[in-house]
Design goal:
The protein has helices at about 1-10, 20, 25-35, and strands spanning about 45-50, 55-65. With about 70 residues, the chain is of the alpha+beta class.
């Protein structure tokens, strides 16, 4: 039990500062989001299942870039 207590006491305390946890590369993205001038490309994978004739089923897959 003593060993378990020591492992918890030796752990580093987390830094609660939000700004220090953000990588520098995100600062530009954050600025653009706040200004409302950002855009993101999103790919959506879709498929459609339909029946051809009386018994054949077909699946069509496609990707939409929004």
């Amino acid at each position: 039990m003593e060993r378990l207590k020591r492992t918890f006491s030796m752990r580093k305390k987390r830094d609660t500062s939000i700004e220090s946890n953000k990588p520098h590369q995100w600062q530009e993205d954050e600025r653009k989001v706040r200004e409302g001038s950002c855009s993101f490309q999103v790919k959506v994978w879709c498929y459609v299942l339909f029946t051809v004739g009386t018994s054949k089923r077909c699946i069509v897959e496609f990707v939409i870039v929004i």
